[in-house]
Amino acid sequence: MSFFKKIFSSDKKETLDKGLEKSKTTFFSKLSKAVAGKSKVDDDVLDNLEEILVSSDVGVETTLKIITRIEKRVASDKYLGIEELNQILREEIAGLLSETNTGEATEFLVPIQARPYVLMVVGVNGVGKTTTIGKLAYQFKKAGYKVVLGAADTFRAAAIDQLQVWADRVDVPIVRQNMGSDPASVAFDTLQSAVAQNADVVIIDTAGRLHNKINLMNELTKVKRVMQKVVADAPHDVLLVLDGSTGQNAFEQAKQFTAATEVTALAVTKLDGTAKGGVVIGISDQFKIPVKYIGVGEGIEDLQVFNKYEFVDSFFK
């Protein structure tokens, strides 16, 4: 397949290889044990593979899809050797990712012509939401865009202060109000400021609490409605940040947030510190939402644009 003939940027790819090392090592260690002494892919191998994929947080539904596809290939090829299983897995997972992640982007680019591009960020506290916003601001600024941040998570003073730290670090303007202020008011002021400054990118932080889905839904709907008074089609993207190291909990968070608001893109963080990298595959497949960014390290440069080709190559390298 031409899929595997892509040429990747060396520095970024090395970071991705390193970030997925724990996931890859754990997965292939289990796979090696599962096929030990086997010469071909049979029912026992497929049963073991199913268990490995589920335990790697790929998710039950996505795992069954992968197993079904492999079973069809086993049936059509009559005899399928163990040595071919790695390649087949690679191809089938690539195929699943391709159904949702159609782009091949590797750079931080504003995806539309309209200015400013408004990105509303959602996610529970502790998943790396504020850090992701800071790293996004850095990467967009590095790409030559003028960036403005909006601290609309007014539920916690710490959230406002943390975003201020990132704004200072990246040297981009931030619009903030006091804790307890109306989030929609902050979003409105941020967009007005961005338009006045002729900014290219606006990133709006929002509250990360999930204890009351109705309140969250109402709040995010209000933020969107008020933003549209300044920029008619805002937000252009709603980015849900998920902690990849939480495995199945990330699935539950995705379920809750997609029920509360229209999520158009995902960022999966902390993949470098976990063996649960399979969660990227499962979440992308089950929710039919493209993974746009992945976090593969603590450094400011270690938030990467998700490229399905690079991801699969690193996972199976």
From TrEMBL:
Organism: Flavobacterium shii
Family: Belongs to the GTP-binding SRP family. FtsY subfamily.
Subunit note: Part of the signal recognition particle protein translocation system, which is composed of SRP and FtsY.
Described function: Involved in targeting and insertion of nascent membrane proteins into the cytoplasmic membrane. Acts as a receptor for the complex formed by the signal recognition particle (SRP) and the ribosome-nascent chain (RNC).
EC numbers, comma separated: 3.6.5.4
GO cellular component: cytoplasm; plasma membrane
Location(s), subcellular: Cell membrane; Cytoplasm
InterPro entries: AAA+_ATPase, P-loop_NTPase, Signal_recog_particl_SRP54_hlx, SR_rcpt_FtsY, SRP/SRP_N, SRP54_GTPase_dom, SRP54_N_sf
Keyword Manganese: no
Gene Ontology biological process terms from the UniProt entry: SRP-dependent cotranslational protein targeting to membrane
Record domain SRP54-type proteins GTP-binding: where: 290-303
HAMAP family noted in UniProt: FtsY
Sequence positions that bind GTP: 123-130, 205-209, 269-272
Gene Ontology molecular function terms on file: GTP binding; GTPase activity; signal recognition particle binding
UniProt membrane topology term: Peripheral membrane protein
Protein name: Signal recognition particle receptor FtsY
Keywords assigned by UniProt, alphabetized: Cell membrane, Cytoplasm, GTP-binding, Hydrolase, Membrane, Nucleotide-binding, Receptor
Domain of life of the source: Bacteria
Substrates-to-products reaction catalysed: GTP + H2O = GDP + phosphate + H(+)
